[in-house]
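Lab meeting prep.
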Amino acid sequence: MNNNSKRNYYLDDIPLEEAIEKYFNALKKYFSKTPDELIEVTKANNRITSKPVFAKVSSPNFNLAAMDGISIDHKNTVGATETSPKTIKIKDFDWIDTGDPINDNHDAVIMIEDISKISNNEIKIFSSVSSMYNVREIGEDLIQSEMIIPENTKINHFDIGVCLAGGIKEIKVKKNINSKFIPTGNELINLGEQSTKGNLIEFNSYVINGLLNNIGVNTETSPIIKDNKELIKNEISNSIKKYDLVIVSAGSSAGSEDYTKEIISELGEVIVHGVSIKPGHPVILGKINDKPVIGLPGYPISAILINELIIKPLIEKKINHKIHNNNQIKAKLTRKLNSSIGEDEFVRASVGKINSEYIAVPLPGGAGVISSIQKANCLIKIPKNIEGFQKNEQINVLPLVDINDIDNTIICSGSHDLVLDLLKSFLLKKGLGYKMAINPIGSLGGLLAIDQNLCHFSGTHIFDPQTNQYNLPFINKFVKNNKVKTINLVDRIQGIIIPKTNPKNIKGIEDLNNPELVFVNRQKGSGTRILFDHLLEKSNINSQKINGYDNEKNSHLAVSYTIHSKNADLGLGIMSSAVAYDLDFIPLKEESFDLVIPETVLNEEYIQIILEIIRSSEFKKNIESIGGYNTNKTGEIIL
């Protein structure tokens, strides 16, 4: 039978809000009851109360001394003054320490500093005191039967301390949701298993379960199940009996081996199949025995987005408690974002704060690029009725992390270099809360970002053949709106990256006249691309005749990896990236890689820390160990 005859088709392609409303309406019975349980109060951190909690005892449950000194009946102090002290006999006072219970016949404490000891049995006092002077009264902290924690409150360690003070041993909390994650697919293997071409390591379960654990969900994962309908059906059928939520990974699309929709339909009901969002479009929202069963797309970013947009709100509704932040902030966009009309698109972004304004750097990558979500701290939503946003437009962004993490994110735009990755690591090593978001948009792009206040600093290495200088002519040309300081990060060697042992006997730029050689290029605006075009012009080589000239990569490592993967024969890049993949290298030119820093942020703590790192001997030693770098000028102010 032709596979096309077995293909699934979407039941729906509806807006996200409508899909959630439709799904939640179908799960009314599921949401109607939230079971609770009685647990030890000392194990209740991050749990949510199902009933109000009331103190069983007062705290303190007796009058006690707030100071070291003597306890006394305040009436016995009447008449005492500095000029006419009063002598008190032992029968009328007790020596007492802070925290000691007070004699029932006494109602005040006089500090040791305010008495004069005549003997152990006799003292002088120099002022009268009032009732309950320096006394912690019964119930000062808690009064028996006082409410300690209201219902539907997330418990923290302070709450636990107050509960213990109030004599509470056990507490009623909402039961945690139990979730089962079922990974499916012929291509999936576990880490450590022997891999063949076409295999992918299964990691979606670790990511999704980890996100759910963070909000109090108990999670389990089944073994990987191959694309076999009966095996998948059996696992779903067994899981729904035991768990509150079942998540099936992959098999949600419209392929001939995508069985999730069919299985849910047979065991229960599919409420929604297909939501107009990107990524995450082919999600399945179903129920079996009135419990939610969700079919996630296999692409990791799609799965993560569905978790944020649908699964978390479902859990919130089930436990009737807000568990994640969806407060948006305004940010200025660093580049134009295009989107197709008809679907809400969610774009990952790094956001930092520059001169009291949030700046959003959209990250590249499709639904399968999990590294982009690792680098992101916010999401940008492009509504389905618009074609995108313009550069410098003020837009709403949805934080994925605490706002303090965003405030401490330092955006480094411009050219990429391995030394910037090393700098990022050294900054994190300081443990001061700062981290770098590296935005590889090329040297020219970085200078324009500096000019428009779209980054904290940039990396640049642009050769000017007219002046035989690096960087300064271009800084003067493109940075008009900011005064800047230029600081040398490193000098490095540019050259031709080729496979180990140079199997095609490549000798230099002139070999690019050979149409059989496949080249891999850097993106327009990068310093390497500008240098390469200059070398082509100098050698009278027509770029349009170079096989692969339009195959652009955003980093030196990407160029080297393309050659390492045998998808190209050569490329222009830095020596350190060739060393990283054990490739050969033909040196062409030493160049200056400089940092351009606006004077408006130069004295900020994070910049001073970065400069301190750059100038440290430890940092320079680490650079030199990579190979292909010269640190003689590292940290020097060029201009």
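Slide two material, second protein:
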Amino acid sequence: MQKTTPPLASRYLFKLIANLASVPVYLIMEALLPRALGPAMYGNYSFATTVFLQMTGFLDMGTSTCFYNALSRRQQEFSLIAFYLRVSLLIMAVTMLVACGLLYEPVGSLFLPQVPLWLAPLAAFCAFLTWFGRVLRSMNDATGATIQSELWRTAVSLICVGLLVVLFLSGLLNIITLFLQQYLMLTATAVGFWYVTWRTCRVHGISQSFRLAPVQLRAYLREFFTYSHPLFVQSLLSFLMLSLERWLLQWFNGSSEQGYFALSQKVSMACFLFVSAMTPLIMRELSIAWGSRDTDSMGRLINRFAPLLYIIAAYFSCFTLVEAKALVGLFGGSAFVEAIVPVQIMALYPLHQAYGQLASSVFHATGRTRVLRNMTALECLYGFLLTWLLLAPSDLWGLGQGATGLAIKTVAVQFITVNCYLWLASRFIPLHFWRNLAHQILSLSILLAIAFAAREVTLIFPHGESFTLLRFLASGLLYSLMTLLLCLGFPQLMGMQRQDLKNILGRFLQTRHS
């Protein structure tokens, strides 16, 4: 499989195209759900699914990353897949048992305050399917079958969003039909991912036995335990911290504030779709490079792609921050007007999410999971203090800022943590930490200025404030043109040299004429 794997550029291109195709799908979903459910039920849906997504992440305990790295290096080893399917079944069983336990009201009302408890099993199964789909998708990336899996994901997403639109227009979209639509989409996607893996193995003549000899089982248990046991503390702390902050928001401020924060989080995730295509592929290359102990290649990968991913994320984030009022109107309508400030703040979240995934990939690929554990423990300490300060009411020594406060905490903590990861990574691979830090500040400042200028220019058009959608589109076009000219004039912002742009243009023209 290794010899016939398409090059990184081809796999990234297909992932990017799939993500580009999923953007309108994602935007349509997030424009319909808040309007159909309203702030309170939308908040309940987001809170319940987030709790169980965090639970599956905790039960994962880094084993999915261990699986991805191991399969990237040993692609002929189907028994590795058979072993992790057993782990996945165990995670599903535990998740559903916990969800059923929350149906007992004294327990459920404590952990899911103000949320209808019958949502717990529905949200738990949806969370598991989401997690399992990510595992299967990463399995395709590890075996080099990225192109086929992304084509399937795109097709399923387009069909299922069509179903969602039909439900909305017919007045049938509610919390129950939403879960059914999600089950259909996630199950169909998982089945397609599995078929791609099975077909890839068959093409390359790999034996597909699901049986594991006792000696194999013990060997895999030792391998995964060695890799993942330092991450137990990290997974536990992450689960407790991320669940606790959403619980505090629900307890102190209620379902509506939960809905405002959920909307801001969804908008920020839309910005990250363009960047997320690349990070698992780079992680695969980092893992392979570390297998050869080639730290120079690892450094080149980070130095080459980190600025590019950051500038792509910043392009969307800066425009989202400046145009938050228009975006909230398009997504949620007048009922979500109080989400404008949280959306503006959370627009900055994708910036360091890209850097964070790359930086943490270095530690995952090299097996330095103790560093991740220790950093998570430190992050939980200052993260909890900041969460309490921003969410708690004044009589409990807090500022009571609700969704806005949680957005501030999320962005601030991520900025600190990610740059700590980058600095630590620079201690053992040739990574230019200070150059990357300067790039973060400079490029963000420039793109924010361009986005603000584009907005101000379009506001002076006749009826600029009245025709919000028309002005919004004009502002986006002007901003895009100005950003394109900036990147062409100063390719260093994308981590490139002028010769790199000439080479890309040359390859494009050559392909066009061939």
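Talking points for slide two:
Residues 42 and 433 are 40 Å apart (CA to CA).
The chain has one domain: 8-513.
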